[in-house]
Design goal:
Helix content is 20%, strand content 35%. With 95 residues, it is an alpha+beta fold. The strands form 3 sheets. It has a 3-stranded antiparallel sheet with strand order 2-1-5, with helices on one face. The chain has a two-stranded antiparallel ribbon with strand order 3-4. The chain has a two-stranded antiparallel ribbon with strand order 6-7. The relative contact order is 0.22.
Length: 95
């Protein structure tokens, strides 16, 4: 991944507050959760911080992998929900 400091700064500057979906791939299964405690920590190297309760199921997966994805939801996508069961989409429109 080629991410410049400028690109990272611009991307993080667009996220003032909102909802993110944190994902982690563990043994071929995608696990995830919504989080709004998300912020940048450093531009060089590019680092972010997400706060996850240690009792959350996703915490164990994050701790084991030490690597995760962050998906930032648009304002009009706030009706998405996370599905935790394997085989389901991580985020899908609410019905």
């Amino acid at each position: 991944m080629n991410l410049t400091t400028s690109d990272f700064r611009k991307a993080m500057g667009c996220f003032v507050t909102g909802v993110t979906i944190i994902t982690v791939d563990q043994d071929g299964e995608i696990h995830g959760m919504t989080a709004n405690a998300f912020t940048s920590v450093s531009l060089d190297p590019p680092l972010v911080l997400v706060c996850v309760d240690h009792r959350a199921r996703t915490h164990a997966h994050l701790h084991a992998r030490k690597r995760f994805g962050v998906n930032v939801l648009r304002n009009d996508a706030m009706n998405l929900k996370v599905r935790a069961r394997p085989g389901y989409y991580l985020a899908s429109p609410e019905s």
